[in-house]
Every structure is written in structure tokens, then in C-alpha cells.
Amino acid sequence: MFRDTTMERLRHRVADLSAQFAKALGAFEQSALFTGPSVYFHRQTLERLRGHKSAADAIRDDGYLEKMYAMLTAWGLHRMGPGNAKLLDLDDIRRTLLRNAETIQDLERVTILALDAKAASQVARKLGSLLERVRVSRARTFLVSSSKVVHHLLPALVPPIDNQYTLSFFFHSIILNGDNDREVFETIYPYFHALAIENKATIRHAVGRAPMNTSETKILDNAIIGYCLEHDV
Q1: Is the pTM here over 0.90, yes or no?
Q2: Fewest 10 Å CB contacts: which of 21, 62, 142, 161?
Q3: Domain residue ranges in the chain
């Protein structure tokens, strides 16, 4: 459980972003923060996903998995040299995803904009369990890497999460250690949902407007990044 002061600061920041959501999203779009391979392989992975009847079908496609693997590398999840910022071998990732295909297929029927508050909390717990199982990195912590994988399988439901922007926005300062990853996700997901519902029209209008406005949940992520850039978070 997080301290009351932590949760109060989190709620205040979410309310502040919601009040200036369009402005924050515009700040992201103007920043051109992501270019080159990070944009290219993100879009290529989602395009390949859309060519399949289901996400569970996509994970059986070597072409899709290869694009995802390249995207994860472009998004900074595999670095040369010492340290645990290393992706597992692609065959290991394939086996992990196939073991969770049924859960992935069940969840792809759900979208963040279609949930009510009670359902969002229930879905957060299901997703937290899935993220914990879908491990693609050698690191003990899994939230950042797993969320980026699952975002590219369930882009209408799960936003990608990172340390520099997402977790700084919600918590100012927090260290993931593998034991707290799931609690962190299940705490913040209902706030993602609240932002989505409160800004539904803006989000729907923005899909496809800019290269990284690829889905409803990516737009949530983009607005958070824009807010962090604007407020030096």
C-alpha cells in the first residue's frame, strides 16, 4: 500500500493532467521526441497485428514476433554490455506468449474506453497477473517490459509504461523491484481509465493525427509524456 500523501499527490497530478489533456497531448505531438526505429517498429508491429483476426493468432506469426522484438530493442529494452537490460531469446518470448494466449484472447474483447470504474479495477487485476507472467527480460522487474509487449497485443486496453515519464508522473520517484511491479500497475490503471473516460472525445479525435497517436492507450501515454515535458517532471 502507498502512503496517503503519495496517493493524494497522484490524484492531484491526474486531475491536473485531465484539465489540460489536449494541451499536454499537443506538447507531445510538437516535441518530435520519438523518431526513427522507435516509431517505425512500433507502427510496423501494430500494422502486422491488425492483419490478424486476433492477438492470440498474431503471436503464432513469426513475422509479427520479429517486428515486436525489433520494437522492444528500439524502445531501449536490450542494451549491450553489463547489466540486466537484456531481452530473452525470441524463442523464449514466443513460448511465454503462447502459454498466455487464452488470457490474451479473452482480454482483447475489452477496451479501456468501454469500461466503467468497477470493471476497470477488475481488469487491472487480470492485467496485473498477465504482466507478471509475460516476462521478456532478464531483469527481475517486469512492469516496463511486459507493458510494452502487452500494449502491442492489446493496444486498445493497455498503455505502455516506462520509468522516465509514466512512473515519474504518477509517483515522482519510485523504484521497481519485481515485488512491487504488480501493485504499481493495479494502482495506476484505474487512473489511466479515469483519464480516458474524462477525455474520450479528445482521444478519439486524436487517433491517427500524429505518427505516435496509434491507439487510445498510446494517446494516454503521449499526454502523460507531454505533461512531463511541460512541467519538467
Answers
A1: yes
A2: 62
A3: 4-231
